[in-house]
Amino acid sequence: MTAVRSARPRRLPTTFLLLLALIALAVLWAAFAPKSSAAEAEDPNLAVREGRALFLVGCSSCHGLDAQGGNQAPSLIGVGAAAVDFQVGTGRMPLAAPAAQAARKTPLYNETQIRQLAAYVDSLAPGPAIPTVNLADGDLAYGGELFRTNCAQCHQASGQGGALTNGKYAPNLGRATPTQVGEAMRTGPESMPVFSPAQLNDHQVNSIAKYVEFLNNPKSPGGHPIGSYGPVPEGLVAWLVGIGGLVVATLWIGSRIT
Ligand code: HEC
Ligand code: HEC
Question: Is the dihedral of CA 189, 193, 197, 202 positive or negative?
Answer without folding.
Answer: negative
